[in-house]
Amino acid sequence: MKKRCLWICLLCLFACFFLPVRSSAEELIRVGVYEYYPLIFTEDDKVKGLYADVLEHIAKKEGYTLQYVKGTFDEGLKRLERGEIDVMTAIVFSPERERLYDFSTEAVFTDWGVLYKRKGLNVDSILDVEDLTVAVEKSDIYGEYFKKLLGDFGIRCRFMEVPSGEEVFEAILRGQAACGVVSRIFGYFNEHKYPVVATNVIFHPSEWRFAFPKGRQNVLKQVIDFNLKQMKNDPNSVLQASIRKWLELNGVIGSYPDWLVAGIIILAMALVLSLMGGYGAFKKSISQGKELLSSKKEILREKAFFEGLFDSIPDAVALQDPTTMRIQRVNSSFAKVFGYSREEAEGRTLRELVVPEDRMHEAEHHIKSALEGKSIERVTVRRKKSGEIFHVLFNQVPLFSDGKMEAILNSYTDVEALAEIARKYKTARDLAKEELERVEKLWEDTIGILAQTVEMRDPYTYDHQRRVSFLSEALARKLGLSEERIRLVKLAGLVHDIGKVAVPAEILNKPGRLSDVEMEIVRTHPQKGYELLRKLTHRPVLAEIVYAHHERLDGSGYPRGLSGKDIPIEARILAVADVVEAMVSHRPFRSALTLEEALEEIKAGKGILYDHKVVEACVELFERESFSFEDAPLS
Q1: What's the rounded Cα separation, in Å, for the pair 358 and 446?
Q2: Pairwise CA distance, residues 103 & 197, whole Å
Q3: Cβ-proximal residues to 126 (8 Å cutoff; 6+ apart), any chain
Q4: Which of 8, 447, 549, 560 is least enclosed, having the fewest CB within 10 Å?
Q5: What is the pTM (predicted TM-score) of this model?
Q6: Dihedral sign, CA of 337, 338, 342, 347?
Q7: What is the C-alpha separation between 469 and 475, in angstroms, rounded?
Q8: Are 127 and 155 in contact, with CB atoms under 8 Å apart?
Q9: pLDDT tens, residue by residue, 65-81
Q10: Phi, psi of 47, deg, nearest 5
């Protein structure tokens, strides 16, 4: 049965050479970039930012070469649609855009839109933009959403489309627009340069992802998603470090005890602040008659809209009157969390409903802080209608309109419920990890079968690969490579000469000197191995290591004539192990050298042909640590 499986693998192996393969030119990834600090931007002719950090890490790991294609955001989208770039950076996902482009499943960052106004302008809600000019960036998701929002309300204003976020603020500066729509992150980093102020109108929480030409870059999409998912789960990953570098250290985002808590609280605050902005404007509209809205029907429609938003918040929320401290309004989640219906809660105080006896002093302190205009966030305990005491993440925010405190917002997140979600998330993550490990094991078994398949055609090549793999693994470990890279070096060693299945056996086993033509045929084996492994492995870097194992530091190697650090360190390790093992092994066309002679050969090429650190590590393994090829495992 085992022999039959090996024969099937061998047939598949040869069939691969007759299938179309991706050329090395396809390793060039064209990346659409524009100016959007700190997500993606150019400084001193170098592309930098959160997206650049992530992409360059993935490119280095997976063996891609990046070519940045610069332009405006709108130009980038057009290039993406025409297939002139392979991936677009810093783009917000939307169902409408998904009809035009493919998106990464994993998000890089979450943000939302903000309405900015000229300093001194009396704009406190979306109702106040009636008959004003609002600048929006062309093709920007937040600008498009804001247009739709105003259309739903029947609010008339003039929109001015400009090429970039900077031009939005420039239009306000020049007096061409009274207000402008940008993302929260863009506003944070640029508002200090212009006479603009952020309003309380925030909207459309959304995910920033990567985008790809529709139906054309499935492999690249999968590679980016795979790496993003790994980086999100690793607090020390390039993604997390870049977020700390560009966002946390600049105060854009803060640290929360749990990402899920942060997401829920942000959503709750965004929705409720929008609600209160509309509520204040609604009161204003009553006093001003028909200045803002043309009919009572429109007022009622807007009120119903904001009530719907308020009721959809997933946290338990209660609005208190700042004078009487009685509950003005609760949402539907309040009833689910605490057990009180809206009728039971409204008109009563939070202290009598949900505050335990031993926390009354704490509640009084919270009220005092709110009346002083201070916000509170803390983990505490509260009481349900049933009498059950449970932990909550409590947020209290005083809400103002026209300088007057209109209400005190209290939100409660059930910590136990979050913990249950976190446990389910951990279970799902553990299952995914197990599945990933199973796939990795299957992949490694496939590589092992490939190596054994070679034995059926050329026993020497199989034995050579086995011993080279053993030495390569030891060298990688001695040089301090990560466990993942050590495993890659080991696997690459097992199949580094797999391309020799395309070389006639009479050439491989010829007892005399090879002719120039025969030598050229032999020298095709790194290319053939690369083409084969690119088809059979989900790790492109493995194929790249095999492709480069005959390259030399001074550029005299083959097949591409790479030099210096253009040769991956894994391939430089493999090159030394390959040469040493080949020299100490007997072949039909020459006798074996002694180990001492082989080590002298690589010492002579140190820093010229071979990496000097790899050579020194190899010499030390044999001379001081008693390394022996005889200890190499048989399978």
Answers
A1: 64
A2: 33
A3: 115, 149, 150, 153, 155, 201, 277, 278, 281
A4: 8
A5: 0.39
A6: negative
A7: 10
A8: yes
A9: 999 999 999 999 999 99
A10: -80, 130
Helices (H) and strands (E) in the chain, counts: 25, 16
**Alpha carbon of residue 451 to chain centroid:** 35
By C-alpha distance, which of 61, 66, 56 is closest to 32? Answer: 66
Residues 6+ apart with CB under 8 A from 527: 499, 547, 559
Residue 374's identity, in one-letter code, is K
Please give the structure tokens belonging to residue 8: 């099937």
Q: What is the DSSP letter of 610?
A: B
Read off the amino acid at residue 325: M
Query: In this structure, what token pair is assigned to residue 523?
Result: 């020298």
Asked, as a colleague might, if the bond just before 559 is cis with ω within 30 of 0, I would say yes
Under 8 Å between Cβ of 212 and 221: yes
Q: Is the pLDDT reported for residue 225 higher than 90?
A: no
Rounded Cα distance between 132 and 116, Å, is 13
Residue with tokens 């979600």: 421
Same fold, 25-109+207-248 and 458-631: no
- In the numeric block, the tokens 């002139």 are attached to 84
CB atoms closer than 10 angstroms to residue 383: 17
Residue indicated by tokens 């689910």: 336
CATH superfamily, domain at 25-109+207-248? Periplasmic binding protein-like II (3.40.190.10)
Phi-psi region of 131 (alpha: psi -120 to 50; beta: other; left: phi over 0): left
CB 417 within 8 A of CB 315: no
CA dist 573 and 474 (Å) reads: 10
Compute the distance between CA of residue 121 and CA of residue 179 in angstroms, rounded to an integer: 9
Residues with Cβ < 8 Å from 340, sequence gap 6 or more? 330, 334, 353, 385
Please name the residues in contact with 22: beta carbons below 8 A apart, sequence gap of 6 or more: 534
Domain boundaries, the chain: 25-109+207-248, 458-631
- Taking the C-alpha atoms of residue 4 and residue 10, their distance in angstroms, rounded to an integer, is 10
Residues 364-382 as b or e (16 or more Cβ within 10 Å = b): eebbeebeeeeeeeeebbb
Q: Which pLDDT belongs to residue 541? A: 83
Q: Which whole-number Å values give the CA distances from 64 to 56, 502, 553, in the listed order?
A: 9, 26, 20
* Contacting residues for 593 by C-beta, under 8 A, at least 6 apart: 583, 584, 601
Fold for the domain defined by 458-631? Hypothetical protein af1432 (1.10.3210)
What gap in Å lies between CA 608 and CA 564, rounded to an integer?
9
- Per residue in 514-571, pLDDT (tens digit) is 777 778 888 888 988 888 887 665 567 888 899 999 999 999 999 999 999 889 999 9
Rounded Cα gap, residues 622 and 626, in angstroms: 5
